[in-house]
Amino acid sequence: MFSAIADFHVWYRNRCQAQQFRATKIPLEELDGWAADPDSGNLVHRSGRFFAVEGLDVSRSGREVAAWQQPIIVQPEQGVLGILVKEFDGVPHCLLQLKMEPGNVNGFQLSPTVQATRSNFTGVHGGKRVPYLDYFTAPRGGRTLSDVLQSEQASWFLAKRNRNMIVQVEDDVPVLDDFCWLDHAQISELLREPNLVNMDTRTVLAGLASRRHHGAGAPAGDGFAAALARSWSPGGRALHSTVELLSWFTEAKGRCTLTRRGIPLSKVDGWSWAGGEITHDRGQHFAVIGVDVEASSREVSAWQQPMFEPASQGVVAFLSRRIDGVPHLLVQARIETGALDGVEMAPTVQCQPDNYRLLPDGRRPLFLDEVLGAPPGRVRFDSVHSEEGGRFYHAQNRYLLVEAADDFPLDVPENYAWVTPHQLAGFVRYGSHLNVEARSLLTFLGFHKEDDR
């Protein structure tokens, strides 16, 4: 535990210096253990496990572009993302891990207590056992605060979900070198720093808001659930009831015409394998690259793998406004390429703006200009953070909360709805409702200091 945030930063620097890591891009053809299937061209591991990079054909998307083909990551197994919570002097703390991921822009970020794929925690890689895993596998001790299957980035994963868990314990927990206990105020402070709290931690922390929303008792003291409850207190009447919002969401799913089918990676139109990478012919979206990794602190000290490298930085933003004095967020029922149900609740804007530079203005994502053109006085939150560093190389999004102009309409297109943060936090309790970008942004806003909201 740290008495001051400056003590954490000293610990962070010391632990980074104590570890050795290297992530170097190499040609896909040189990846050890990986090969292109001779029939399909799909990138697969020799064990048949971990994941594969395959082709996907998308049509009738209902998006700005109606049809396209792309590489996509197929990883049907479910991983575990788990955070341990324990009270010290009545104050709950989270046990977080300083973890190296090959795709992190800065190498080391704060991850959950356990962040592991099934292939990893079943020992397919032949490496060391995942620490603290027993707290999150049956039979387990402790008190489960949150446990739900949540989606991953649906633009790059096909129907990928991980088990998001929060478990509170009372017994003594040995703290290994790269782990630390952090309380609500400290996590709130660290979430304000770019590229420090990783995506997996952010999605799990969103489950704390869900827990308090549904009336479960908060731990003693000024803890996580209690603080988030104050953040999401309704404080007035919502524009739409929760039943009405669920009906709106169900109708959006019913309208979805998205059609997708797997195709050989070698047949994906608009993409080329050249120079050791698979790239988009216009240099947009992302590239499939090879990476050679060494890491002294991981279960396996060296490995190679394919990764997705975005061509540009993304924008993830909620527009907000008060309706009869109650804060609301403009939520999108977004058609997602790889989402299990095809549609998930998403932020108002979620895109890589550079991908739309060649399209006419009428085909740019809705409300993108309102977000990027907002004057500084209406920007309530603005920070750049990394996405999942185990599969995505140097993937970053700019996360924003932007207050809408006074004349911004209450009437919005049918795939959008005004939702209170309190209502949105409640939907985290269910899988396939909020996408990972919305959960990340919800965590940023929930842990944001009250004088900044």
Commentary on this structure:
It is a single chain. The chain is α+β, with helices and mostly antiparallel strands and 453 residues long. Among the domains are: 5-20 and 76-216, Nucleoside Triphosphate Pyrophosphohydrolase (Alpha-Beta Complex), CATH 3.90.79; 242-258 and 313-452, EvaA sugar 2,3-dehydratase subunit (Nucleoside Triphosphate Pyrophosphohydrolase), CATH 3.90.79. The chain contains nine helices and 24 strands. Strands 6, 7, 8, 9, 10, 11 and 12 form a seven-stranded mixed β-sheet that branches. Residues 213-222 have low confidence and may be disordered.
In short:
This protein is α+β, with helices and mostly antiparallel strands and 453 residues long. Among the domains are: 5-20 and 76-216, EvaA sugar 2,3-dehydratase subunit (Nucleoside Triphosphate Pyrophosphohydrolase, Alpha-Beta Complex), CATH 3.90.79.40; 242-258 and 313-452, Nucleoside Triphosphate Pyrophosphohydrolase, CATH 3.90.79. The chain contains 9 helices and 24 strands.
Keywords:
453 residues; alpha+beta; Nucleoside Triphosphate Pyrophosphohydrolase; seven-stranded mixed sheet; EvaA-like; EvaA-like_sf; NDP-hexose 2,3-dehydratase
